[in-house]
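Below sits my pick:
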Amino acid sequence: MNLDDLTRRVSRSFALTLSALPAKQRGAVALTYLIARFADTLADAGKLKLEERLQFLAAWKDAFLQLKPELWKPLANVGSFSESEAYLLLEGRNILSEFSKLSLSQIDAGQEVLKTLVAGMEWDLKNFSSAFDQSATPKFGVKDPQTFDWYCYSIAGCVGAYWVKIFKLPISLESLAVAYGKGLQRINIIRDVKSDWNRKRVYLPDSELQKLNLVGAEFWKKAEWKIFLKNYIAETKKLLFYGANFCDSIPYFSFKLRWASAMPLKIGLATLNKIALIQDGGTEAKISRREVKKLAISTLCSVILGRKFSNENLYQDGR
């Protein structure tokens, strides 16, 4: 198995980030990412039934937690998945075998974050089980801000804690990194409101939406949506400000790590600013490859020149 080639097939953007990471941790981060991506593919891709997804996900979790590749029985048919997804699924045992060869500290950090990520995926499948019924109406499945915050942690905030552990950063930075991850997940959720609705899912906290009477189909077209969106963006930018402070706290000479850590911040802020202008569900708020390239260059310049990401006047409100 060629780890670099597999990572590029699965995600070009992550492969770019991976190439910038310190060599000592690069393989561990790649393998942990691939295990998580493998689990996400089982949970969210192809044409598997709900029961099958849960069974395969449980088997995959057992295999990486017990470090026993033989516990994973490859899918008999991967024809319903995309080419890159199928390629990944066929490499399951090889990925697990390479993961088991990492250092104990790298394995422990990887297993800890993977356990949390898979728990979030399992909750998602069970909570939105009706999404597999084509005749069902979309479900407002996140009841309150506390559940929403937990979900953002389980899907992305926990990755911040992993980042601190795997790169041996001061433990005092963990809370900043967790907040950063949750902020990034909030961006994904608000950007994908329409597409998630088409998948019969609403991840935004139901209690907050109901306060503004944002219920029913196309709730994002109501006038009250602008109020919700402004408050949501402002809260998300506060979390990204913690992320900016996290990036600033990475030692100056760790150029590659600072760049890789700051790129999601730059892309996230650019996405939020587009969403604020669109104000109708965010489906057009995608950052183009050309924009990503410009952001990559500007981020690199900031890293080399020692500029503070927290000094940028982009975190104050939703405008």
